[in-house]
């Protein structure tokens, strides 16, 4: 029987073990100044000479002895015959200790008429005003910026001593293919090492990725030994979960020592921490979000402790929109989208699946649920560690509700306005709007009287004033590979939308009209959260048919048999209509260019696009 992990080590202890037993040790190397931007200084840098090296004029004018100007007034000007004309940057001649701007003097009586006494060192840049010879320009541990390069060049610096920190990254797994290759069934594009290398390089660290290594202990041993010989830290991806072909821990133990196998974090629990040749070896789990957590929560702090500057993330306090349960004994890290709605910051958790990389793409922050708690409640104020600038959170437009592929086009057209869309179904969107967890709620809820959306708003938001804005009228239909009709659904496998979605409610309405028991539909309980997910499940052969919009079927290249046209609208609290983010959205929806995009896509009608209804509920 295969065991899962060894006993879990707390996160802080795991980091301490690395820093105590095998901290990475950067080396000092010399680089030409121009190549040092982004690198970290290994020692202080001192000016080779003073800047300026002589007293210089700071203005266009005349250089004078200040003593010679004493007593000068408008009524009794002093005529100076030995003043020297200077321009900005000229060396001050001997015997002069002041510069008078040229506009403050007049040429009279064969000399310069001075009508105001000059102060000693007036308009003069003294020797060493910028920096004195042997004065420190930057300390050790300084991350060199592009503007530092100009200053250091001016101070006579041609070479700088910087920290050289290199990481060797080893992707393992016989199922892996290089990125840029379309994977076949059973294959996976290697992305974890690409992600880790990108992060390390952003910190000024050299990151070298080895060729793909198959699940062969001898090949893994060879790659690990070479990486530990050449680099300061080794990161090996996959092979950490104690599966039947996971050889990483075994090989690390043969070449060195396994210090930790299993850390109390989620995702990322199966991480391996080892030591080879006195250098740390980190075994990343295969799931992308598990790997991301290990990179962010273990590797980054270790790098920071080694002297590489790492800027701490900005933090905010935000109201949690959904209750999150968590296991005692593990620190759980949940990716979030945060934004300011109705005057307060709110944060919504994204999918917690360890393989869902789009959660990372869509996130703008991370919530840490401590190991000693069983979760956090909706409405709690929680600390969010941001992975963007706080300004992006403050300016984000938050949508929650029904999915449509056109939302992605809208987000693209609204750029650089950050847009975050949660596909939680039309009913979920109405409830999010009611709780002020979003700015806008896309919806298409069919009522028994044949109207869309209004009856549900009346039921769930009584006393509120809501404005409905029509995005488009769109076709819903049966998507399949073989032209299956609605009446043929009882004879095929089906993939459904989630409860509370308008598409699910449309399906139930049509089944009820025909007297069809949902239980007779094979796959009725299998749910997807987007139209595209339904279409792609059909294309992959996981199901024979599903219900989705025409544009999703077109994207997937599948047959589409329409069953009806519905009104796809966005609900907005009327009090928010003057919000700049909402105004930008409305301007887009009402634009001719947006109508053109809809008309070029399958299954949309634009006669009602942009029409507003303000409802006092």
Automatic annotation (TrEMBL):
<dbReference type="InterPro" id="IPR008284">
    <property type="entry name" value="MoCF_biosynth_CS"/>
</dbReference>
<dbReference type="InterPro" id="IPR005111">
    <property type="entry name" value="MoeA_C_domain_IV"/>
</dbReference>
<dbReference type="Pfam" id="PF03454">
    <property type="entry name" value="MoeA_C"/>
</dbReference>
<dbReference type="InterPro" id="IPR005110">
    <property type="entry name" value="MoeA_linker/N"/>
</dbReference>
<dbReference type="InterPro" id="IPR024370">
    <property type="entry name" value="PBP_domain"/>
</dbReference>
<dbReference type="InterPro" id="IPR036688">
    <property type="entry name" value="MoeA_C_domain_IV_sf"/>
</dbReference>
<feature type="domain" description="MoaB/Mog">
    <location>
        <begin position="168"/>
        <end position="305"/>
    </location>
</feature>
<dbReference type="InterPro" id="IPR036425">
    <property type="entry name" value="MoaB/Mog-like_dom_sf"/>
</dbReference>
<dbReference type="Pfam" id="PF00994">
    <property type="entry name" value="MoCF_biosynth"/>
</dbReference>
<dbReference type="InterPro" id="IPR036135">
    <property type="entry name" value="MoeA_linker/N_sf"/>
</dbReference>
<dbReference type="InterPro" id="IPR001453">
    <property type="entry name" value="MoaB/Mog_dom"/>
</dbReference>
<dbReference type="Pfam" id="PF03453">
    <property type="entry name" value="MoeA_N"/>
</dbReference>
<comment type="pathway">
    <text>Cofactor biosynthesis; molybdopterin biosynthesis.</text>
</comment>
<dbReference type="Pfam" id="PF12727">
    <property type="entry name" value="PBP_like"/>
</dbReference>
<keyword id="KW-0501">Molybdenum cofactor biosynthesis</keyword>
<dbReference type="GO" id="GO:0006777">
    <property type="term" value="P:Mo-molybdopterin cofactor biosynthetic process"/>
</dbReference>
<protein>
    <submittedName>
        <fullName>Molybdopterin biosynthesis protein</fullName>
    </submittedName>
</protein>
<dbReference type="InterPro" id="IPR038987">
    <property type="entry name" value="MoeA-like"/>
</dbReference>
């Amino acid at each position: 029987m295969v065991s899962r992990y060894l006993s879990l080590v707390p996160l802080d202890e795991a980091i301490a073990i690395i820093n105590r037993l095998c901290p990475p040790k950067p080396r000092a190397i010399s680089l030409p100044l121009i190549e040092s931007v982004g690198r970290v200084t290994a020692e202080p840098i001192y000016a080779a000479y003073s800047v300026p090296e002589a007293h210089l004029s700071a203005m266009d004018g005349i250089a004078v002895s200040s003593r010679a100007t004493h007593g000068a007034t408008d009524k009794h000007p002093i005529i100076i015959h030995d003043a020297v004309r200077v321009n900005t940057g000229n060396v001050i001649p001997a015997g002069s200790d002041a510069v008078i701007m040229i506009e403050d003097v007049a040429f009279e009586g064969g000399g310069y008429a001075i009508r105001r006494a000059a102060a000693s060192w007036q308009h003069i840049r003294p020797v060493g005003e910028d920096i004195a010879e042997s004065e420190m320009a930057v300390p050790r541990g300084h991350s060199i910026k592009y503007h530092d390069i100009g200053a250091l060049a001016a101070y006579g610096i041609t070479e700088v001593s910087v920290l050289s920190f290199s990481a060797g990254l080893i992707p393992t797994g016989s199922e892996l293919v290089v990125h840029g290759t379309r994977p076949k069934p059973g294959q996976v594009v290697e992305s974890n090492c690409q992600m880790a290398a990108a992060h390390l390089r952003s910190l000024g660290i050299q990151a070298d990725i080895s060729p793909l290594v198959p699940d062969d202990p001898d090949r893994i041993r060879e790659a690990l030994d070479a990486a530990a010989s050449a680099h300061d830290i080794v990161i090996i991806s996959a092979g950490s979960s104690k599966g039947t072909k996971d050889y990483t821990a075994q090989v690390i133990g043969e070449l060195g020592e396994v210090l930790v196998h299993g850390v109390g974090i989620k995702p990322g629990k199966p991480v391996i921490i080892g030591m080879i040749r006195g250098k740390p070896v980190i075994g990343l789990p295969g799931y992308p979000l598990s790997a991301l957590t290990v990179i962010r929560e273990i590797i980054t702090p270790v790098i920071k402790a080694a002297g590489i500057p790492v800027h701490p993330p900005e933090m905010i306090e935000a109201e949690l929109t959904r209750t999150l349960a968590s296991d005692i004994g593990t620190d759980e890290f949940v990716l979030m989208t945060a934004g300011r709605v109705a005057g307060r910051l709110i944060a919504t958790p994204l999918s917690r699946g360890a393989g869902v990389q789009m959660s990372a793409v869509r996130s703008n922050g991370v919530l840490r649920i401590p190991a000693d708690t069983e979760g956090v409640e909706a409405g709690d104020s929680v600390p969010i560690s941001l992975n963007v600038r706080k300004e992006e959170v403050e300016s984000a437009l938050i949508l929650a509700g029904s999915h449509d592929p056109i939302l992605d086009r809208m987000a693209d057209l609204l750029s650089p306005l950050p847009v975050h869309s949660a596909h939680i179904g039309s009913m979920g969107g109405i409830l999010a709007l009611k709780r002020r967890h979003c700015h806008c709620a896309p919806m298409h809820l069919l009522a028994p009287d044949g109207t869309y959306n209004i009856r549900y708003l009346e039921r769930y938001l009584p006393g509120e004033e809501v404005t409905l804005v029509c995005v488009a009228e769109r076709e819903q239909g049966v998507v399949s590979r073989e032209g299956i009709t609605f009446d043929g659904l009882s004879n095929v496998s089906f993939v459904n939308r989630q409860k509370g979605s308008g598409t699910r409610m449309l399906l139930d309405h049509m089944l009820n009209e025909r007297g069809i028991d949902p239980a007779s539909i094979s796959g009725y309980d299998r749910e997807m959260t987007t139209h595209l997910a339904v279409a792609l499940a059909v294309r992959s052969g996981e199901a024979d048919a599903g219900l989705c919009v025409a544009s999703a079927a077109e994207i997937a290249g599948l047959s589409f048999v329409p069953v009806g046209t519905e009104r796809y609208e966005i609900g907005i609290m009327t009090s928010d209509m003057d919000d700049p983010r909402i105004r930008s959205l409305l301007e887009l929806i009402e634009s001719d260019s947006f109508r053109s995009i809809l008309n070029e896509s399958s299954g949309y009608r634009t006669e009602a696009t942009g029409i507003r209804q303000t409802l006092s509920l």
